[in-house]
Write a structure and sequence with these properties.
The chain has 399 residues and is α+β, with helices and mostly antiparallel strands. The protein contains twelve helices and nine strands. Helix 1 packs antiparallel against helix 3.
Length: 399
């Protein structure tokens, strides 16, 4: 960057100009230009050029001092890459539970080149803008600034149509959980990385994620609740880890304090955060599920979360057990009323405690996912909101 000195009034003008420029790009993307020049031309040519202009202008402004020194900066950049790799691994671990899908991106040489230019240029412009705003607003760890900038960048991440399509509590809750809050968590982490060492750190993190998405032929196909758990908790864990490691590396903590507080907090954060993510996506022998109907009242009410122990030996299942089983694409939790054995293979007759009659279809062993061992009341209301407006063919559906 070119070293220059400027008056405060001129800095404010540049600061305002950058905000107006970014908002103009967003407005052109969503309202005007696309309809005039075509979506492809704008996305793959004009939009990257606009963001490149923002990045170039910031590059020519006076150099900013970052929180960390150069030596520590290399450490932060290295961990930005490691965090990206860990994020990808956690996503794929969740995908092994929920399922994997074919990548929608073009993997031809032409497609890769177009993506590198269009997405890459936009990413560089956004991170240079984020860095300039952060270091213009604060020189210390100011979380109000971090939250404000992260919220602003998150709002820009979604098109206007996405917000206009939100109709009622169902779509709002699902949008917040599946898309907005994970994006906000990722933006908060990258904002902190930018604060520590400028745009290079966040570009390493986000660039690694984007490059993997462009290049990988398969990608995780996560359910909304899994996407919310992984997308929110993983960046939060990484942010906390980065705080601890930065304090260690920059020697801001005394050695005895580091052993008693920093290291302990770091390890606890790792265990709790990773454990919550893995538990939510069903990695452990026990997994959660949310009930949205009243077929098992008074044992289970709508909005309760059930803890299900995965079935390892079908011989352990007895009459009276409440099992969690899959019928077509529907998950059901009902009590076993009868075990019918034919040719040595058992089948199970089930009934909801609050239903007047037993279920018509018998449950086969391969349909059983586990046995309900615990009910946690009323913490599954977001799923209730999401499913409340949909037509459900069976009263006993569990999600």
């Amino acid at each position: 960057m070119i070293m220059l000195t400027m008056s405060k009034s001129r800095i404010k003008i540049i600061y305002l100009f950058l905000f107006v420029g970014v908002l103009t790009i967003y407005a052109l993307d969503n309202i005007v230009i696309r309809s005039l020049v075509g979506t492809s031309l704008f996305i793959y040519v004009l939009k990257p050029l606009f963001w490149s202009g923002i990045a170039l202008m910031i590059f020519l402004l006076p150099a900013q001092r970052y929180k960390s020194k150069l030596r520590v900066g290399h450490f932060i950049n290295s961990w930005s890459f490691i965090f990206a790799v860990v994020y990808i691994c956690v996503q794929f671990l969740a995908g092994l539970v929920d399922g994997l899908g074919k990548s929608p991106y073009d993997h031809s040489l032409y497609g890769i080149a177009i993506n590198i230019f269009s997405i890459g240029a936009t990413l560089v412009g956004r991170e240079f803008f984020r860095s300039y705003i952060i270091h213009s607003l604060t020189k210390r760890e100011n979380y109000r600034v971090f939250l404000s900038v992260s919220l602003f960048m998150t709002l820009l991440a979604f098109p206007v149509e996405k917000y206009l399509d939100l109709q009622g509590s169902e779509s709002i809750v699902k949008f917040l959980a599946q898309y907005f809050l994970p994006e906000f968590s990722k933006n908060f982490l990258t904002t902190y990385l930018v604060f520590l060492r400028g745009p290079i750190s966040s570009l390493i993190f986000l660039g690694t994620l984007e490059t993997f998405n462009w290049m990988s032929p398969i990608l995780p196909n996560l359910q909304w609740i899994t996407a919310a758990s992984v997308g929110i908790l993983t960046p939060v864990f990484m942010f906390t880890a980065m705080q601890n490691m930065y304090e260690i590396e920059s020697k801001q903590c005394r050695k005895e304090d580091l052993k008693k507080e920093g290291l302990a907090s770091f390890l606890i954060t790792i265990l709790i955060s990773v454990g919550i993510v893995w538990f939510a996506v069903g990695v452990f022998p026990i997994y959660p599920s949310v009930v949205v109907t009243g077929s098992m009242e008074p044992m289970i009410y709508p909005g309760d979360v059930i803890l299900v122990k995965k079935t390892r030996d079908i011989k352990e299942i007895e009459i009276g057990d409440v099992i969690h089983f899959k019928r077509d694409r529907i998950m059901i939790s009902h009590r076993i009323t009868e075990i019918i054995t034919k040719d040595g293979i058992p089948s199970y007759r089930t009934k909801g405690d609050n239903n007047n009659s037993e279920d018509i279809q018998l449950v086969k062993p391969e349909q059983i996912k586990g046995e309900i061992i615990k009910v946690v009341p009323k913490i599954g209301w977001p799923t209730m909101l999401i499913k409340s407006g949909k037509e459900i063919p069976l009263d006993e559906i569990v999600f």
